[in-house]
Amino acid sequence: KNIVALQEVDSTNEEAKRQAQCGAPDGSVFLAERQTGGKGRLGRTWESPAGTGIWFSVLLRPSLVPSEISSITLLAGIAVCRGIRSVTGCAAKLKWPNDVVIGSRKVCGILTEMAAEIERVEYVVLGIGINANTEAFPAKLAEKATSLRIEAGSAFPRAAILRAVLKELESLLLNAKAGSAFQEILDEYKFLCVSLNRRVGFFWNGEQQTGMAVDVSPSGELIVERDGGGRISINAGEVVV
Ligand code: BTN
């Protein structure tokens, strides 16, 4: 397997994309002790100091069309939850679309990027950042963020968590490739998803709105019954539970 471990890089997603252009194979993993330009979703930055986090990206070359990529994002969230649960026993869940939370606080973020033409996906980069052994967060973040160490009360070897997540990801991807049981994956996602059957706030049609999250569609959209009436699907942006 192609696993590249770096002491420091701008962003493992950027490194994965650069290596993808140079022909790195499907399944390559890019891991960094520290990122100087870690990226979050929606153009945010992602704090990536050395020592406590697990910052990595997985390069995939799936034979999918662009609209099918959201299934890979759902899959990645499930793999992280399973991996965290198996090593730490923490009840990791998912906040739609793909924040991994313990209780109401975020322990991991996932940033999916892809290069595609209209008909064909060239590659997908799954960027995963897990707050593993952070002892405490600055007051401003502490309300929203947590770490495995804070939740479990003890530190974990980062390699064990990485290995468990990669193992789960590989088995989910192999099953998906074999065409087996997409319904099962969707059911597991919904089971883990804390946003469902909750009131959510979201930005839609240029306005801030509220409603009840009632389902997740096979393509990973959140289905919401708007307070203003009508059922809509949301496929990007920020949802606040
Ligand atoms: C989010 O906003 O929740 C997504 C955060 C994703 C962070 C990870 S860390 C490894 C990879 N490299 C990056 O620059 N971002 C992702």
UniProtKB/TrEMBL annotation:
- Binding positions (biotin): S11, T12, N13, Q35, K106
Q: What does this protein do?
A: Acts both as a biotin--[acetyl-CoA-carboxylase] ligase and a repressor.
Q: Where are the transmembrane segments?
A: none
- Annotated coiled-coil segments of the chain: none
Q: What's the domain of life for this entry?
A: Bacteria
- Occurrences of domain BPL/LPL catalytic (ranges): 1-177
UniProt entry keywords in alphabetical sequence = ATP-binding, Biotin, DNA-binding, Ligase, Nucleotide-binding, Repressor, Transcription, Transcription regulation
Q: Is the keyword Transcription regulation in the record?
A: yes
- Family affiliation: Belongs to the biotin--protein ligase family.
- Which GO molecular function annotation, any one, does this entry have? biotin--[biotin carboxyl-carrier protein] ligase activity
Quickly give the catalysed reaction.
biotin + L-lysyl-[protein] + ATP = N(6)-biotinyl-L-lysyl-[protein] + AMP + diphosphate + H(+)
UniProt entry tagged with the keyword Hydrolase: no
Q: Which EC numbers does the record give?
A: 6.3.4.15
Tell me what this protein is called. Bifunctional ligase/repressor BirA
The part of the entire sequence present here spans 81 to 321 of 338
